[in-house]
Write a structure and sequence with these properties.
This protein has 155 residues and is mostly helical. The protein contains seven helices and three strands. Strands 1-2-3 form a three-stranded parallel beta sheet, sandwiched between helices. The mean pLDDT is 90.
């Protein structure tokens, strides 16, 4: 039922952002895609220079890990779930939530410092390979289950 209205709302927002981009004369630098199927996400990440996630609330934003795996630096808000993934000024830039100036400065910094941006992206990729590869994640789960079992057995 709500799918039609969700699409309508998304189109309304996209029109708003596209109009704003034209008024700011930046429409050649940004692309508003709307929802992207998961199968196309790697394509869009790889044609981008940076992934920006200015959320006000997050759990474990997988999209950051996906972008970092593609060797992209990330700009995200300094929130608990995000802090576990992004190392400030190493694999990306953390900005204060609700601070548009911080966000703009971070974007400009990476735009103006291509070498630093590339280095952050490379470090981000290495971090994902070390921290989030399947073997590491499975071993962490096994360890967690073993600890839980030990706690139950030794009550």
């Amino acid at each position: 039922g709500g799918h039609f209205f969700d699409k309508l709302e998304e189109r309304r927002r996209l029109n708003y952002y596209e109009t704003m981009a034209r008024e700011l004369d930046i429409e050649h630098y940004v692309k508003f895609t709307g929802s992207i199927p998961n199968t196309l996400l790697p394509y869009y990440i790889n044609i981008s220079d940076v992934l920006i996630l200015p959320s006000l609330a997050e759990g474990f934003p997988r999209v950051l890990v996906e972008a970092m795996a593609c060797g992209k630096p990330v700009i995200a808000t300094n929130l608990p779930g995000i802090q576990e993934i992004v190392t400030h000024k190493e694999t990306g830039i953390l900005v204060n939530p609700d601070n548009i100036e911080d966000l703009a400065n971070a974007i400009l910094f990476l735009y103006r410092n291509k070498k630093k941006s590339k280095d952050m992206g490379e470090k981000a990729r290495k971090t994902v390979i070390e921290k989030y590869n399947l073997e590491v994640v499975v071993n962490k789960w096994i360890q967690t289950f073993q600890e839980a079992i030990q706690m139950v057995l030794h009550k």
